[in-house]
């Protein structure tokens, strides 16, 4: 007997499609669970009612296929739980991504997408560098704006000359007015050539840090730092009325580059008759070379320290003199001029230097004569070229942040940029002196200590040549502005009455002051009583009690006698 299969009672729903809301009484549904909600079992199947012919097809968001929309119950409120799940459900493509084609186009596209972590590291380093630079600028301006408060570089920014109580301040000029000045001078005229020059050794142009050369000492050669009024040639030219204003290239370059200076300096001005003489004092700061003058990192204050400002200035002057003689061909072959060295005695061994006395026309009635220097000569294309020789010195890499022995061969531009930042005034003065002498080339040597704590032994690491006009444009040094500064100072001094004056760069402010001093000031017998530092910026009150020194003068009397003759 074949068993029968009971389908069971199928309830009828007279109100619509689907099972009724309540089971029909008496039906055989005891084997079915009660109150179990219907839910789809496969996520990809839209299972609900079989079909809903009562759907509204006027909905603009409906599917484009009406036949599919009849069977779409995703937005039906009959299944709220399923609707929420379907809203967050996304199909995941299990296929592997296509392998990239290693072509130029793919490489270009991949280069645009840098790793995020690398970008963050670069950004973090940039932010740290900006913070450090802001901190250094803040400390620098804080120290400069508070000259009377305690600061680390107080010893560096002291006055170059002690202001005396009897000195009378006549005028003060802020450096901000110098930047607006401009004056064009015609080509200078050579009045006389003196001295002798040795030829430059071109093998030093191939010097590298790996093949450095030890710096030699030239104790037998004499170097002369003669001021204007002690120069016999300038005295003779003054007697012949060749000019109205007389100076040297070191004094003129100091005036021309005054806005770049930080350390204090002073220049003596003598007004004798209708003539003007710019002098320097014996043992003046102009005889030395500043080191790290415009750097933001302060140098040690102790004067005995080998890295103090004074010790480095003496060391730089020593290096510069020896370097200017070592890079020459010392075979006895010299280029001589009409007159020998005017400061050397007969039979005395002197350094290779030529003095070029030149005259510039500043006005219809004002001419300026200056003694300019060149240190060497070179024959280029059968033409004689004059050279100036100067040396930059490295004393400790931790102060500059650049190690010359590592960076000089591969990053010479970075080394020069660092020197331009730390020694802007010194490089500008060297460039101005080369322009005044009309030198065809200026050679810059890079000289470093053998050991950072040994300031006696040095090595030449490299020698680089520049044309003065090109180098001036590179460091933003405008010749018209330089002559504008000189012209303004000359005009100001020519309005003063006869006597002796001194131009002093303020040690803490970017300005220069002019004081009227006694005729015997800065002489050997002159007794100096320094004025208190807080009163140096103020003009002394009238009627100051004190006795004036009565020592006899030498230079001024001699000038007056020569002028009257």
TrEMBL record:
It is found in: Cytoplasm. Keywords: Cytoplasm, Initiation factor, Protein biosynthesis, RNA-binding. InterPro entries: eIF3d (IPR007783). Transmembrane segments: none annotated. One of its GO terms (biological process) is cap-dependent translational initiation. It comes from the Eukaryota. Residues 82-135, 527-565 are annotated as: Disordered. One of its GO terms (cellular component) is eukaryotic 43S preinitiation complex. Residues 285-299 are annotated as: RNA gate. Its main location: cytoplasm. Residues 527-536 have a biased composition (Acidic residues). GO terms for molecular function: mRNA cap binding; translation initiation factor activity. Residues 116-135 have a biased composition (Basic and acidic residues). mRNA cap-binding component of the eukaryotic translation initiation factor 3 (eIF-3) complex, which is involved in protein synthesis of a specialized repertoire of mRNAs and, together with other initiation factors, stimulates binding of mRNA and methionyl-tRNAi to the 40S ribosome. The eIF-3 complex specifically targets and initiates translation of a subset of mRNAs involved in cell proliferation. In the eIF-3 complex, eif3d specifically recognizes and binds the 7-methylguanosine cap of a subset of mRNAs. The RNA gate region regulates mRNA cap recognition to prevent promiscuous mRNA-binding before assembly of eif3d into the full eukaryotic translation initiation factor 3 (eIF-3) complex. Component of the eukaryotic translation initiation factor 3 (eIF-3) complex. Belongs to the eIF-3 subunit D family. This is Eukaryotic translation initiation factor 3 subunit D. It comes from Lupinus albus (White lupine).
């Amino acid at each position: 007997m074949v068993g029968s299969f009971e389908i069971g009672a199928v309830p009828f729903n007279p109100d619509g499609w689907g099972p009724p809301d309540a089971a029909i009484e008496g039906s055989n549904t005891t084997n079915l669970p009660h109150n179990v909600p219907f839910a789809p079992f496969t996520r990809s199947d839209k299972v609900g009612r079989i079909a809903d012919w009562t759907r509204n097809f006027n909905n603009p968001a409906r599917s484009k296929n009406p036949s599919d929309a009849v069977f779409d119950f995703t937005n039906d409120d009959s299944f709220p739980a399923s609707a929420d799940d379907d809203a967050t459900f996304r199909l995941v493509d299990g296929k592997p991504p296509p392998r990239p084609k290693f072509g130029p186009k793919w490489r270009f596209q991949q280069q645009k997408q840098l790793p995020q972590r690398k970008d963050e590291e670069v950004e973090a380093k940039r932010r740290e560098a900006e913070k450090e630079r802001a901190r250094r600028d803040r400390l620098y301006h804080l120290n400069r704006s508070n000259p009377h408060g305690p600061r680390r570089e107080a010893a560096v920014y002291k006055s170059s000359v002690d202001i005396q109580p009897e000195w009378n301040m006549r005028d003060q000029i802020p450096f901000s007015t110098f930047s607006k000045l401009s004056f064009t001078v015609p080509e200078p005229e050579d009045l006389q050539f003196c001295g002798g020059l040795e030829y430059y050794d071109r093998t030093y142009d191939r010097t590298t840090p790996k093949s450095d050369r030890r710096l030699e000492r030239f104790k037998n050669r004499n170097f002369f730092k003669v001021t204007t009024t002690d120069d016999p040639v300038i005295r003779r030219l003054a007697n012949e009325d060749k000019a109205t204003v007389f100076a040297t290239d070191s004094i003129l370059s100091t005036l021309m580059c005054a806005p770049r200076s930080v350390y204090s300096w002073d220049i003596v001005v003598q007004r004798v008759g209708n003539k003007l003489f710019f002098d320097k004092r014996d043992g003046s700061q102009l005889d030395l070379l500043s080191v790290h003058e415009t750097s933001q990192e302060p140098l040690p204050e102790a004067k005995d320290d080998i890295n103090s400002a004074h010790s480095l200035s003496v060391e730089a002057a020593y290096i510069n003199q020896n370097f200017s003689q070592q890079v020459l061909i010392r075979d006895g072959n010299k280029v001589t001029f009409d007159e020998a060295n005017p400061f050397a005695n007969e039979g005395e061994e002197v350094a290779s230097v030529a003095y070029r006395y030149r005259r510039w026309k500043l006005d219809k009635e004002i001419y300026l004569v200056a003694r300019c220097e060149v240190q060497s000569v070179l024959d280029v294309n059968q033409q004689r070229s004059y050279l100036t020789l100067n040396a930059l010195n490295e004393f400790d890499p931790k102060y500059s942040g650049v190690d010359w022995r590592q960076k000089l061969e591969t990053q010479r531009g970075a080394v020069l940029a660092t020197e331009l930042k730390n020694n802007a005034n010194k490089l500008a003065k060297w460039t101005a002196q080369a322009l005044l002498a009309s030198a065809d080339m200026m050679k810059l040597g890079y000289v470093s200590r053998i050991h950072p704590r040994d300031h006696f032994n040095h090595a030449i690491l490299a020698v680089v040549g520049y044309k003065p006009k090109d180098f001036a444009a590179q460091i933003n040094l405008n010749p018209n502005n330089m002559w504008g500064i000189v012209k303004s100072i000359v005009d100001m001094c020519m309005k003063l009455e006869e006597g002796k004056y001194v131009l002093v760069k303020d040690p803490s402010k970017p300005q220069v002051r002019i004081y009227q001093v006694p005729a015997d000031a800065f002489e050997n017998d002159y007794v100096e009583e320094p004025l208190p530092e807080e009163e140096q910026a103020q003009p002394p009150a009238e009627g100051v009690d004190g006795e004036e020194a009565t020592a006899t003068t030498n230079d001024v009397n001699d000038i007056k006698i020569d002028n009257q003759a």
